[in-house]
Design brief:
The chain is of the alpha/beta class. Helix content is about 40%, strand content about 20%. Strands 8-9-10-11-13-12 form a six-stranded mixed beta sheet, sandwiched between helices.
Length: about 425
């Protein structure tokens, strides 16, 4: 234990009543962690690196210390040098020995970046089953959580921590919009599209922060964990993904451009998805074959990633990306519609049927606008009760056939002033 005692004290400042930073609260997540103290389940926070998982753990610890002795709370940062040289169980035994806790004494264990610990799932299950430890863990790759976390089925509650949404971005930047100044939303929203939602960026991170973040994810999560060989090809594929933002992508085209195989390109793209950098959207279809073999649309976890490869604004694609991230968080199933060379960006599943949602980041639009041809085709074929067109500032309600179509600005959707349902 002596080799680690100093490290334990450095990373657990509350043992010596030293203050520690807990950042800015994100209510939609902090409520989850606060409410979790009374549950037995393992609390698992997943999400990309630098999206705020560690900050949420520290906020949970701060709240816990209001009612719990400091020497019953143990934080372990698994990606620090040397930590993985010992098992999680051995570290916990060190902690119990340090403060004289009996083996059956209740403690609170917080482990950051759990994917770095070999065999973590078996150890966490064993601790959970003994019933003496309330456990909080974070992980930055969905692959390790999914592949090794099956032993925790029924024993865990999972929360996916995403980059800041638009409301959170405004809060972090200290921006407020009064009812008399709603016109400011377009400026703030476009700033958000360009800067993105990584918390440190919103708080003024130095130039080069995002490039370092992506390189960190590639080196520590993709190359190390998946044993991907070529970091140059990984960056090229991410760049082509950013170039094709919000479009249907062809892995055959990617492979040809790289001089690689389709299998390799698909594998690398899946690594990005598992590292919470990109998401794929399937075609909305009742046919499993159609969903599997149709080209997928691709979106970024954060629109700022596009800046690493392109200097332009491209607000139309970025707006669609923001809308996708919003819909993905709020609806269990969605896809895109395509037929006859026409497309609807999103089809969401609601309790009373499928609903089309089209992204058109414009200030004016006509009911019979050619840009709504895909929406009109979908309405004609499937006759949904309602449909949405999400715009920049244009707002109007009209009917297409017997379908009620509501055009609404994106900022109203993202701030919750208009509900898509």
């Amino acid at each position: 234990m002596n080799n680690f005692k100093e490290l334990y004290y450095r990373t657990n400042p509350w043992w010596e009543k030293r203050d520690f930073s807990t950042g800015i609260e994100r209510p939609k997540y902090s409520k989850i962690t606060r409410d979790s103290f009374s549950y037995n389940q393992v609390e698992l926070l997943t999400g990309g690196r630098r999206t705020g998982k560690t900050t949420l753990l520290r906020q949970a610890i701060k709240e816990l210390l209001k009612t719990t002795p400091a020497n019953e709370v143990f934080y372990l940062q698994a990606d620090m040098p040397g930590i993985v040289d010992k098992t999680i169980t051995a570290h916990v035994d060190d902690f119990r020995a340090l403060f004289g806790h009996p083996y059956d004494g209740k403690i609170y264990l917080f482990i950051d970046e759990i994917q770095c610990c070999e065999g973590w799932d078996r150890e966490i299950k064993s601790m959970y089953d003994l019933g003496f430890t309330k456990i909080f863990i974070t992980g930055s790759t969905s692959y390790l959580i999914e592949s090794r976390g099956s032993s925790l089925t029924g024993r865990q509650r999972t929360t996916n921590v995403r980059p800041l949404d638009y409301n959170e971005y405004l809060s972090f930047r200290g921006l407020k919009v009064s009812p008399a100044e709603t016109y400011l939303h377009n400026k703030y929203l476009e700033d958000y599209m360009m800067q993105g939602g990584y918390p440190s960026v919103a708080l003024g991170a130095p130039e080069g922060y995002m490039e370092d973040t992506i390189q960190d994810i590639i080196n520590r999560d993709i190359i190390r964990l998946f044993r991907a060989r070529n970091s140059g090809d990984l960056m090229k594929i991410l760049g082509m993904t950013a170039a094709g933002l919000a479009t249907r992508v062809s892995f055959h085209r990617f492979a040809k451009a790289l001089g690689s195989t389709v299998k390799t390109v698909k594998k690398y793209a899946e690594y990005f998805e598992k590292a919470f950098l990109v998401s794929f959207l399937e075609k909305y279809s009742a046919s499993l074959k159609d969903r599997i073999y149709s080209n997928k649309k691709i979106y970024l976890a954060d629109t700022s990633i596009k800046n690493l490869f392109f200097l332009g604004t491209d607000f139309g694609a970025r707006a669609e990306n923001l809308l996708f991230n919003f819909l993905k968080e709020n609806f269990r199933r969605l896809g895109y519609f395509a037929a006859g060379g026409r497309e609807v960006d999103f089809i969401i599943e609601t309790p009373d049927g499928a609903v089309p949602v089209e992204s058109k980041y414009v200030d004016s639009l006509e009911k019979d606008d050619v840009r709504l041809a895909g929406l009109r085709l979908y309405v004609k074929k499937f006759r949904p009760k309602r449909a949405y067109v999400v715009t920049r500032s244009f707002e109007e309600e009209f009917e297409t056939g017997k379908t009620a179509v509501k055009a609404v600005p994106l900022w109203k959707v993202l701030t919750g002033q208009v509900l898509i349902k």
